[in-house]
Amino acid sequence: MHASRTTSAIGSLTILSMSLAAIWNPAHAQTGDSGASPDAAAKIEKGIETVVVTAQKRSQSIKEVPVAITVVNAAQLERAGVKDIGDLAKTAASLEFGDQQTGGAGGSASIRGIGTAVFTLSAESSVGVVVDGVPLGATASGLMLDMARVEVLRGPQGTLFGKNASAGVLNMATQAPIIGDSGGNVQLEFKGDHGAAVRATGNVPLNDISALRISGIAERNKGVYHNVLTGEDSVTNNGGARIRYLLKPNRDVAVNLIADASNTRSENAVFFAPSVAYATNTAGNHQPAAEFAACGVTVSKTNNQVCSDGEELTRAQVRGFSGQVDWTLASGDTLTSITAYRTRKQGPESVNIGMSTSYDKVSNHDPYKNARQVSQELRIASPGKQTLDYVAGLFYADSTNDKNANVLIEPNPALPSPPVPRSIATNNLQYANLTTKAVFGQATYRLTDSTNVIAGLRYTRDSVSSRFTQSSVVSFQGFALPATVKSASGSASESNVSGKLGLQHTLTKDANLYATVSRGYKGPQIDNDTPVNQASASGTFAGYIVKPELPTSVEIGSKMSFLNRRLDVDVAAFHTKIKDFQEQNCTLTAVGALSCIPLNVPSVTSKGVEADIRARPLPELQLGLSVAMILDTAYPGGFTFDNTNVGGQRLLYSPRNKATLNGDYSWTLPGDYELKLGGDIVYKSRVRLCNSLDAECAYGGHSTASLRVALRSPDDKWGIEVYDRNLGDKRVPNAIIYPLPGKGAGSGFAYSLGENSFRRVGVTLDYRF
């Protein structure tokens, strides 16, 4: 049944592409008979620009790469208003993001319905985030600054990109310096009452063999949440800079040095706003609706009001440095070395989770949460266009993550103490170290002029260790019990061989087919939470091993061009089965603290069909369409969360259907000014955002649309754009939490919101020099 639906979907997309070609062919045929000038005919012939990607560790046209890819270039990123990594979900149908505040900038991503929403320090994402050849891991920053392009590689990419790419990769490239060119640009953005931003770049030629590129951003976002207790809006300030140095002493050697830094500080910015509050909770000891009303919060599914008497402060600093050397040997092979060091430091942070000023308040104070990573990649690549093309290399990475977290729970002060505590204070110290060593290679052998065989292997050796110490003090009226100290630790080593096999066949210069089988791998984790939570007294315990995640994926695709490259159609059908999928079960304890336990789901399947269409039917009109239909990403039958059978339910952040459409039309005005009108629309079917069978844990099918109009000067020196994003003001959440923290089971639900959850009208001004 599923196979027939997949075949039908592929057929429908093929018919669609052929129909578009048929629609435009008459216009194309008439150009010779219409009396149009040669210049006009040339304009009509203007096609889609060639897209160059590095999905196979070498520069290639996207049409040559046997991988399902959505590419978003710098101009498209600008037009779509992509300012942080989560905004990329608007550009690729198979890409989704959860809550970045809890899941991390890269860890919250999912591709084809597969991601990793796990808080364990020893966990890694199923979707790798790679910037300028460096895998970021836990050191990812959400800011998108001076990007050249983003490649969304779908399906397991472990052969070339490593263990944290079992679902796909976000392969990003920043703008490189240009030797001999002097210039730059400044852009100002005004969002009315919701903030402002300034972005700037400059390219400085130092001499005839080197250049420097400097980019920076300062941004202020306001008003995602409103604290009715203090009368203050949430405010997030972002700042970042990147310096790139390029040295080309001769035609065979290139040296790239890159340093980047970013700071983020949020105030009055809690994670969730109550969206559903019931009259009473299950136990009957809270009246959530009345308690929020007493604090002035009007609970609804469009609510962004919160009631907090806590400090509400979060902050993070990211720093990174990388050096890349590319050396073309006499044989034509290119030797590449990429060395990188990165850090991410968070804290001190304070968050009030209790959601109101009533009893059973829960507040977090985290002195620090730090990540450090060192990586080294050394590889060699053949020149390309040979009978045998290959990439082979070595990779090493060592990362350390540590966290200090304090949780304070304040039960009802009106009840007698004892037996009811006045407070429960818990300190959690966590540490994890992950080391990876790998050797990899992939080769393409040209059987005939039109048929290639692809084969790749990666051997990975992982070592992971983690420890967790929890100290709790229960205080009553006038006295406190001795501290309960529980600790757990564990370690694991794992060797894995993953790889890829495939065929690629060129039908014509404008059409090729490919079929691949890929085996991916994501390393083990250490679960120290379970033994600590199960223990009722002080002691030292052994951590549990969360087994590696092993996906096997079959993909069949085609990449076609029509009408002299005015229409590109890329279609892919896929079937991915994941053994021991890494998931977590998050619940609230009896007193309202969040407890998240990592675990393995025995088997998960993701299958479906995708299409990316790029079109330029007229010289003035550009269109882009990305479509994904994911037929299955369900928990296996009988699988349970909290004694509830969730078998057959879709994974989190996995809509069945999603489509993104964007378009821009330009006019030449008198005086050679250019006016451009553009817009985009994203449709998404129902998506689950928390692990419960309750209907409130899902957000229904919806569409969000944006419009923009821009004017550019005749010399392209300056421009102005007015935009209106999320026209319908759809309050789409990034995540949903249940029950309401501090309110007990059966109390209700809360939404995590972001900038995209609101309508935003703004204007940008830019000047190029």
Strand proportion, as a percent range, falls in: over 45%
Largest sheet: 22 strands, antiparallel, barrel
Unreliable stretches covering 5 or more consecutive residues: 1-45
Oligomer: single chain
N→C terminal distance: 59 Å
The whole-angstrom Rg is: 27 Å
Chain-averaged pLDDT: 89
Q: State the helix count.
A: 7
By DSSP, the count of extended strands is 45
What shape does the CA trace take?
A: globular
Protein name: TonB-dependent receptor
Keywords: Receptor
What does this protein look like?
- The protein has a 22-stranded antiparallel β-barrel.
- It is mainly beta and 769 residues long.
- It has seven helices and 45 strands.
- It is globular, with a radius of gyration of 27 Å.
- The N terminus is likely disordered.
- The longest helix is centred in the N-terminal third of the chain and has 29 residues.
- This is TonB-dependent receptor.
- It comes from Massilia orientalis.
- Keywords: Receptor.
Topology:
Blueprint: H1 2-30, H2 38-45, E1 52-53, E2 60-61, E3 69-73, H3 74-79, E4 95-97, H4 100-103, E5 109-111, E6 114-115, E7 127-131, E8 134-135, E9 147-154, H5 158-161, E10 168-174, E11 183-190, E12 195-207, E13 210-227, E14 232-250, E15 253-267, E16 273-277, H6 288-295, E17 305-306, E18 313-328, E19 334-346, E20 349-352, E21 361-381, E22 388-410, E23 423-446, E24 451-476, E25 479-480, E26 484-508, E27 511-519, E28 525-527, H7 529-534, E29 539-542, E30 544-546, E31 550-562, E32 567-588, E33 594-618, E34 621-634, E35 640-641, E36 644-645, E37 657-668, E38 674-684, E39 687-688, E40 698-699, E41 702-712, E42 718-725, E43 735-737, E44 748-752, E45 760-768
Parallel strand pairs: 7-10, 13-17, 26-29
Antiparallel strand pairs: 1-2, 3-9, 4-5, 5-6, 7-8, 9-10, 11-12, 11-45, 12-13, 13-14, 14-15, 15-18, 16-44, 18-19, 19-21, 20-21, 21-22, 22-23, 23-24, 24-25, 24-26, 26-27, 27-31, 28-30, 31-32, 32-33, 33-34, 34-37, 35-36, 37-38, 38-41, 39-40, 41-42, 42-45, 43-44
Protein name: TonB-dependent receptor
Organism: Massilia orientalis
Keywords: Receptor
